[in-house]
Write a structure and sequence with these properties.
Elements: H1 3-12, H2 16-20, H3 24-38, E1 46-49, H4 55-64, E2 67-71, H5 74-78, E3 86-90, H6 93-97, E4 107-113, H7 122-130, E5 133-143, H8 154-163, H9 167-176, E6 180-193, H10 194-202, H11 214-227, E7 232-245
Parallel strand pairs: 1-2, 1-4, 2-3, 4-5
Antiparallel strand pairs: 5-7, 6-7
Helix pairs in contact: 3-4, 7-9, 10-11
Bound molecules: S-adenosylmethionine.
The site of S-adenosylmethionine has 22 residues, from helix 1, helix 4 and helix 6.
C-alpha cells in the first residue's frame, strides 16, 4: 500500500464509519446490491478484500455465517467488531494475488468494495483474485464510475477523473481472467446539511482529498461554500458493480 494511502486510512479509521454510514438506508441499499450480486447464502466461503472497518463484511456475515476480512491497514482492521464470524487478516490485494494463503482454500464469493482504485497492478491482481474462486464462485468489484456528482471543488473533480479506473477496464480484466462478466450501475440519492458535508471535506473524508495540502483544501472548501449556498447539498451516489463468475 502506498505510504500516503496508509497514512490516510490510519488517520481516518476511528471516524470512518461515522463518515460513510450516511444513513442506515444507504447501508441497507448498498448491502442489498452486494448480497444480490454475490448470491450470498449461508455457508458460502467469503472474503472481503479492502474491507476497511468491515462495514459490509458485518452484514455479509449475517447471511453467510462468516467472512475473511482482508485489509492492509492495521488501524482500519482494529475497528472491526469483535465477532468470531469476522476473521481479520492484515494483507493487501496484491499479497492475495501473489499467493498469500488465507484461512480457507477456494471462495464462493470475493468482494472488493471501493478499494480497487488503490491497487497498482490491477490486471495481475484481478487475475490472482479470480484464481481464489471455487467453481461457480463470484468476484464482485464495487467502485465509483469515472466521474462523480459529489458537491466537491473543481480541482478535486479533475483529480478524480485523472485517477479513477474505468469500470469497463476492470470488466475487461475480469474477462481476461476467464470470468463471465456482468457490469451494472446503480445510484442512491444522498442529502447532507451543507455544513456537515463541508466538515467531512475539511476532514478529508475521501482519500482523494488527502492529495490536497491544507491551503489547497481551504480554497476548495471556500469554493464549495460559494457554489452550494443552500442549507442542504443533494446528489446521486452512483456505483459500478463489476461481477465476474467462475465457470
Ligand atoms: C474506501 S475504503 C473501503 C472500505 C470498505 N470496503 C468499505 O466499503 O467500507 C478503502 C480500503 O482499501 C484499503 N486498501 C488500500 N490499499 C489497498 C490494497 N492495495 N489492497 C487492499 N486494500 C487496500 C484501505 O486500507 C481501506 O480500508
Amino acid at each position: 500500500m502506498r505510504e500516503e494511502t496508509r497514512d490516510h486510512y490510519d488517520r481516518l479509521a476511528p471516524v470512518y464509519d461515522q463518515n460513510w454510514a450516511y444513513s442506515p438506508d444507504f447501508l441497507d441499499w448498498m448491502s442489498d446490491c452486494i448480497l444480490a450480486r454475490l448470491r450470498a447464502k449461508y455457508g458460502d466461503r467469503v472474503v472481503d478484500v479492502g474491507c476497511g472497518t468491515g462495514l459490509y463484511a458485518r452484514r455479509l456475515a449475517q447471511h453467510t455465517g462468516s467472512v475473511v476480512c482482508v485489509d492492509p491497514s492495521a488501524r482500519m482492521l482494529e475497528q472491526i467488531p469483535d465477532d468470531p464470524r469476522l476473521v481479520a487478516v492484515q494483507a493487501s490485494a496484491e499479497d492475495l494475488a501473489s499467493g498469500l494463503t488465507l484461512p480457507g482454500d477456494r471462495f464462493d464469493a470475493v468482494l472488493v468494495k471501493e478499494a480497487i482504485h488503490h491497487v497498482t497492478d490491477r490486471v495481475a491482481v484481478i487475475d490472482g483474485l479470480a484464481k481464489l474462486l471455487a467453481p461457480g464462485g463470484r468476484l464482485l468489484i464495487v467502485m465509483l464510475p469515472t466521474s462523480i456528482e459529489y458537491p466537491l471543488f473543481q480541482a478535486a473533480h479533475e483529480r478524480f477523473r485523472e485517477l479513477q479506473p474505468d469500470p469497463q477496464a476492470i470488466a475487461a480484466a475480469m474477462g481476461d481472467a476467464g470470468l463471465a462478466v456482468e457490469l451494472s450501475y446503480e445510484d442512491f440519492p444522498l442529502a447532507f446539511p451543507t455544513e456537515r458535508y463541508v466538515a467531512m471535506v475539511s476532514d478529508r473524508y475521501l482519500s482523494l482529498l488527502s492529495m490536497f495540502d491544507d491551503e489547497e483544501l481551504a480554497a476548495g472548501v471556500e469554493e464549495i461554500r460559494r457554489r452550494y449556498q443552500g442549507e442542504w447539498v443533494e446528489f446521486r451516489d452512483r456505483f459500478a458493480f463489476v461481477l465476474g463468475i467462475a465457470s
